[in-house]
């Protein structure tokens, strides 16, 4: 059975051999509030838990019994994609926002595609040729592009050498903003 926050607070007070009155003086929290916290009759708030955490010298996670965090690493298995590309997923699952590292080897721009969503990408290395509608631009390492995927778009290596990008794609069409440098003043 899981221990409640109130039970943990009562156990810590007993472990430190403190009375409610002494703990109240140490934390500035009234005796009645402390009593209600320990009996789970009062919802613990950050404002109440912080002084208790400091007094008992325990982390907030320990105080509230937060579950341990698992291994946050994402297993990255490269996938062969169309048009001479390799995609390495940087997010665990397909969701509203996906992150990929992509290696783009092809120089020929494929047939422009149109689909729902919004894409943002950052060029890690190499040069990328991006066509959106009738416009074509070349992006170098350190440059960023963002666009609505409902516009016809295609990309490839600009010079025949592999290029690497980090791509964020949101199917819901949310825009992702970046600002590499402040806007130039006129």
Automatic annotation (TrEMBL):
- Write out the entry's keywords from A to Z: DNA-binding
Superkingdom in the source lineage? Bacteria
The record's section on InterPro entries has: Cro/C1-type_HTH, Cupin_2, Lambda_DNA-bd_dom_sf, RmlC-like_jellyroll, RmlC_Cupin_sf, TransReg_Diox_bact_type
Q: Name one GO cellular component term.
A: cytosol
Query: Is Manganese included in the keywords of this UniProt record?
Result: no
Instruction: Supply the CDD domains for this chain.
Output: cupin_XRE_C, HTH_XRE
Q: Note whether DNA-binding occurs among the keywords.
A: yes
Task: Give the Gene Ontology MF terms in alphabetical order.
Answer: DNA binding; DNA-binding transcription factor activity
Question: Which parts of the sequence belong to the HTH cro/C1-type domain?
Answer: 9-63
Name of the molecule in the record: XRE family transcriptional regulator
């Amino acid at each position: 059975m899981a221990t409640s926050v109130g039970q943990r607070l009562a156990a810590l007070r007993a472990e430190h051999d403190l009375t409610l009155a002494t703990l109240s003086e140490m934390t500035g929290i009234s005796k009645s509030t402390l009593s209600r916290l320990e009996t789970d009759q009062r919802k613990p708030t950050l404002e109440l838990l912080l002084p208790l955490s400091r007094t008992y010298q325990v982390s907030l996670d320990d105080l509230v019994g937060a579950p341990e965090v698992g291994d946050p690493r994402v297993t990255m298995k490269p996938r062969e994609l169309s048009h001479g590309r390799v995609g390495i997923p940087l997010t665990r699952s397909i969701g509203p926002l996906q992150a990929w590292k992509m290696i783009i080897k092809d120089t020929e721009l494929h047939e422009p595609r149109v689909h729902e969503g919004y894409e943002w990408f950052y060029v890690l290395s190499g040069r990328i040729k991006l066509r959106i509608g009738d416009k074509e631009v070349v992006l170098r390492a350190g440059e960023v592009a963002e666009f609505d995927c409902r516009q016809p778009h295609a990309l490839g290596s600009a010079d025949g050498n592999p290029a690497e990008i980090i791509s964020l794609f949101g199917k819901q069409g949310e825009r992702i903003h970046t600002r590499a440098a402040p806007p130039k003043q006129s």
